[in-house]
Design brief:
The structure holds 2 protein chains of 2 kinds.
Chain A lengths: L7 E13 L6 H9 L5 E14 L4 E5 L6 H8 L7 E7 L2 E3 L13 H11 L4 H15 L14 H12 L6 E5 L7 H16 L3 E5 L3 H7 L2 E6 L2 E7 H18 L4
Parallel strand pairs in A: 3-7, 3-8, 5-6, 6-7
Antiparallel strand pairs in A: 1-2, 1-4, 8-9
Helix pairs in contact in A: 3-4, 3-5, 4-5
Chain B lengths: L1 H10 E3 L6 H11 L1 H18 L5 H18 L9 H28 L13 H16 L1 H10 L12 H24 L2 H15 L12 H10 L1 H14 L6 H32 L1
The chains are: A alpha/beta, B mainly alpha.
Chain lengths: ~260, ~280
């Protein structure tokens, strides 16, 4: 029996970018500084040699302060970014959930937006057609599909986005602070759909500031700080360590 | 087992096993071609919905500009035979170029939010802007034909050659858009500077005036250094004379266009990662 590869695998993955120490917003300023040979660049490591493996069917939490590299990690997994060093391997269809309204055109009707959003996620027209009725059922926008999106309520837009994005059962689902929106009923619906993905073996990467959600949903977690792994392991151990460090920092009055 | 492996291969992504970026991008675009069509459709529909005359404006716009220019300049440039047709044909080609490149720049520099969240080949939005531009260009051939009828301008068989100049111009436009988008990643000011440069560029291109009115030393500069001169020229010649553009002119245009397209594609795909870092 072949050993099964993990669903998500990072090996010494780093993301480095060069940035001028002073921000050169204008071209003129840059040229002047360039002429004076004063352009100093620094390397910023958004992620520094991160290695981790997420197994099939796991729900994996990612925690850390703002700017710790959580989003960069998700971008690597969803192929938005390529690592500058090391490597990233994913096995299966990766589906990131977008924030409310991103990817929609508010002048167009709900129906047109389903096709637009579906194609943005890389689905062929024919397949979107096949999923169409299922999407409007889940989003509960049956009577409004021919109305322009700007007439929709926030709740309807959130439902529509979620419905399209999750209509194709993904192998790896990326949730970035996504479930903070929408009403209670819709949230429950989302969670039950995510639950059903999990039961069929989907892998889930979850980023949220809400440690309670992490604790209740995740099996394992990683705590990132300044682009490097602070702790990785069972969710309780990681959140405890993170909590403790946050408390310590609060006492010393540093950071926040 | 076989089936499992093939599905696996389709969805397995290994960042260390990617080919050259320019080639990967090309493959990605092919895979996402339906998205490009969808984006063009949405752009056209939403423009149509925003105003009463909707899509007619794409035709009325060049027509209006042509009318003004004809009223102002036809006495001055009476040496040009069929001046309205001369102006309109030049304007159509120029408008396509200037609108598509500006849209491309704005989209790539300010409108990239989606590109940061989900994986989409990075040139998809540029290509959809280009395709939208081509559709608008084709639509504005309708008023051109109308004006040709009104001023009793002869229709030549060479008109059937028109797709070739359009294609050559489209690849040049794509290349320029990608090159300046890459520059704008580093200096967002370029977006505004480009707008000013476009205005100057337009007046340095024989669009509203005949080339002959430019004094000789400057004229030679234009005909050797301004690539838009060639593209407007081959576009116009297919409308104006019953002969096809000379092979020399065509070859030069194709070479310029290919050079800008290839270098734009290479540079943009090479640096596009920076787009995600910076904004």
């Amino acid at each position: 029996m072949l050993k099964k590869e993990p669903a998500v695998f990072l090996e010494n993955a780093s993301v480095r970018y060069r940035s001028p120490i002073e921000p050169y917003v204008s071209f003129k300023k840059f040229i002047i500084h360039l002429a004076k040979q004063q352009v100093k660049m620094e390397d910023i490591m958004a992620l520094n040699a991160v290695s981790l493996a997420v197994e099939y069917g796991e729900t994996f939490g990612i925690i850390g302060r703002n700017g710790a590299g959580k989003s960069t990690l998700l971008k690597l997994v969803s192929r938005v970014l390529a690592p500058s060093n090391g490597k990233v391997i994913t096995n299966g269809i990766v589906a990131p959930l977008l924030e409310l309204g991103a990817g929609f055109n508010f002048e167009l009707t709900g129906k047109e937006n389903i096709f637009l959003y579906g194609s943005l996620l890389g689905h062929p027209h024919k397949e979107i057609k096949a999923h169409f009725s299922e999407i409007i059922d889940f989003a509960q926008i049956n009577g409004y599909i021919d109305a322009p999106l700007r007439t929709y309520s926030n709740g309807m837009i959130a439902r529509l986005g979620f419905a399209v994005a999750t209509s194709w059962s993904p192998d790896i689902l990326i949730l970035d602070e996504i479930l903070a929106v929408g009403d209670e009923e819709f949230r429950e619906k989302c969670f039950s759909r995510i639950e059903s993905f999990r039961s069929t073996g989907s892998t889930i990467l979850l980023v949220t500031h809400d440690l309670k959600t992490i604790l209740s949903e995740c099996d394992r977690a990683v705590w990132l700080d300044k682009g490097a792994i602070q702790k990785i392991g069972l969710v309780q151990t990681v959140t405890d360590a993170y909590q403790e460090s946050m408390n310590r920092m609060g006492e010393n009055g540093v950071g926040g | 087992m076989k089936l499992f492996q093939s599905v696996q291969a389709l969805t397995r992504y290994d960042s260390s096993q990617r080919g050259p970026l320019a080639l990967e991008e090309l493959k990605g675009v092919l895979k996402y071609r339906e998205l490009i069509v969808e984006l063009v459709r949405c752009e056209l529909i939403s423009r149509y919905k925003r105003s009463i005359l909707g899509i007619a404006w794409t035709m009325l716009n060049p027509l209006g500009t042509m009318l003004i220019l004809t009223l102002v300049f036809s006495n001055l440039f009476h040496s040009v035979e069929g001046y309205p047709v001369y102006v309109l044909s030049g304007l159509i080609a120029w408008t396509f170029f200037s609108q598509t490149t500006s849209t491309t720049l704005h989209q790539n520099v300010w409108g990239g939010a989606l590109l940061h969240r989900i994986f989409i080949p990075r040139t998809v939005f540029t290509l959809s802007a280009l395709l939208t531009g081509v559709v608008n260009l084709l639509l504005s051939l309708v008023p051109l034909a109308l004006i040709m009828l009104i001023v009793k301008f002869p229709f030549h068989l060479s008109l059937f050659f028109l797709p070739i100049p359009i294609l050559i111009l489209a690849f040049f436009t794509l290349g320029v858009g990608l090159l300046f988008s890459t520059l704008s990643i580093y200096f967002p000011d370029i977006v505004d500077m480009f707008q000013v440069a476009l205005t100057a560029w337009m007046y340095l291109t024989p669009i509203i005036y005949p080339l002959e009115i430019i004094p000789l030393p400057l004229r030679n500069w234009i005909t050797t250094l301004n690539p838009m001169y060639y593209f407007i020229e081959i576009f116009r010649q297919t409308i104006f004379s019953n002969n096809l553009p000379s092979p020399r002119l065509l070859i030069v245009s194709i070479l310029i266009s290919a050079f800008f397209f290839v270098s734009g594609w290479l540079v943009f795909t090479w640096k596009a990662n920076e787009l995600t870092y910076r904004t």
